[in-house]
Write a structure and sequence with these properties.
Layout: H1 5-20, E1 22-28, H2 35-43, E2 51-56, H3 63-73, H4 76-83, E3 87-92, H5 97-108, E4 113-117, E5 121-123, H6 127-137, E6 148-150, H7 156-170
Parallel strand pairs: 1-2, 1-4, 2-3
Antiparallel strand pairs: 5-6
Length: about 180
Amino acid sequence: MAINKGQKLTARIAHHNKLKMISVIITTYNVEKFIGEVLDSVLSQTKLPDEIIIVDDESSDKTLKLIKEYPSTLIGDLKSQFKKIKKYKIITQKNKGPAGASNRAIKEAKGAVLISVDSDAVLDKKFIQRAVEELKINKTRGVVGGYIRTATPNNFWARLMGYDLEYRYDHIGGLKSKKSIC
């Protein structure tokens, strides 16, 4: 089948628009205590994603119920932010572990920019904006990391990991902070 010039132009525009699309993917498994705060942090971004894809890996608690009801619980700014999201998709699957859930989310995501958010991670308000800016500056970069706050501050291991990440973040590129890790 021959493609005329008009069709080529349409294909280029569609490809260009896809490059601008941002997908947030979240995999969940028994995180009923944290998922609301995590989703709130996604909706509080200065640059919103185009879609939010959540793969629940057969949670046995109320995680799936909370994810399904989340849009109807929103009020004020979060409700208006949610209306700007083009797609909010929830996928359930038999338990395949974190890698299986992530692979499923990646397959479902339509964006050229994928932001993977742990189901107990609270994003800084400018996380997505900074990640996209970094990808635009250095087009060869494929991964952008960032600083996050755990939604599980009462868990010793989560706090310890958070302190370690904060310490490393503060010492990147020889920049030293006066903060201690303990």
